Each structure stands twice: as C-alpha cells, then as structure tokens.
Amino acid sequence: MALTDLPQLPGLRSLPVLERPDLVAAPVAAALADWPGASGVAVVEIDPELADTAAMSAAYHLPMEAGANCVLVAGKREGEERIAACLVRADTRADVNHTVKRLLDVRKPSFLPLERAVTESEMEYGGITPVGLPTGWRLLVDARVADIDVAVIGSGLRRSKLLVPGGLLVQLPRAEVVEGLAG
C-alpha cells in the first residue's frame, strides 16, 4: 500500500503500521500481523503527554468525533467474571449501566481498575486499544464507530496512535457491533 493510500489526518504523519511494530505494544503488533485489515491501518507518532483524547484533539486540531475510545468493563454473574472492551466514539460515553450490563449479563458492571487494565492488556494507560486484547474478553463496538472516516485509536503505547477507517474497526476479529452501545 502506498503512503498516500493510508488513512491520513492533518498535522499527523501516517506510517504503515505493519512496517513500524516498534510504535505499537507487543500484543497489538501480533494481532495486526494476523489481521488482513491491517494493511489499511496507519500509525502516527505523538507526544506521549498528549495521549489522552481531549489533549490530543486540542493539540492537533482534531474533532472529538474523529476519536474512538476503548474502555474496559468487568462484572460478575454467579462467581464468573466477564470482561468487555467497549469501543465508542470519543464524543460519546459507553452506556455501562444499561447496555453493557445487559450484554455482559452481570449484576453491577464497573470499569476495570487502571493497574489491572494495564497489566492484563499489556498496554499503557492512555493507549489501550481494541486491537490485541486478551482473547477471553468480548469486544463491543458502537455501531456509530463505523461512520468515522478516519478514527484515531490507541496503539497500546502513549507515544503513538492508530488511524483506522471506522468501517475497518467493525471488522476487527471478535467485534460485536452494537446499536446504542454509547449515548
């Protein structure tokens, strides 16, 4: 794929992610190597201090609706823990107390504690992404993510981001597209 075919956003230099595994966390690189859609994914280097969505959007003059956030939610049912990664547009919030609760079939869902999220995902806080998560976790993707021309998502590291067409994100392995996942 030519560099001009990669997803692009103004102010960011798109690089082919498959050629720059050093810019993504190890589980992300492994997942991308096995995913046919990875050829349509770019990686961009950023200042790690700007990894949080609002800071990056402001610094690089990107609309919030160009970002997609991955939040990790857990809950239990009859002693069994259930974890899901929820991918939602950055200008929305995952409906944890209703939609996610129903989909996971748990009594009380909550966000996975930071230390545990980082340890179990093998990704840095501020860079957690739906690509390369543990296989036992569900991947719930809000249907509106598909409408993002070029989505900015984590790379597993704070110093870079992935640029992915929204239509590709809903094709990630194990992705469950959910209407109304976010509000």
UniProtKB/TrEMBL annotation:
Q: What SUPFAM superfamilies does UniProt report for this protein, alphabetically? A: YbaK/ProRS associated domain
Limits of the YbaK/aminoacyl-tRNA synthetase-associated domain:
48-165
* Origin: domain of life: Bacteria
Pfam families for the chain: tRNA_edit (PF04073)
UniProt cross-references to InterPro entries, sorted A to Z: YbaK/aa-tRNA-synt-asso_dom_sf, YbaK/aa-tRNA-synth-assoc-dom
What name has this protein been given in UniProt? YbaK/aminoacyl-tRNA synthetase-associated domain-containing protein
* Organism whose genome encodes this protein: Nocardioides aromaticivorans
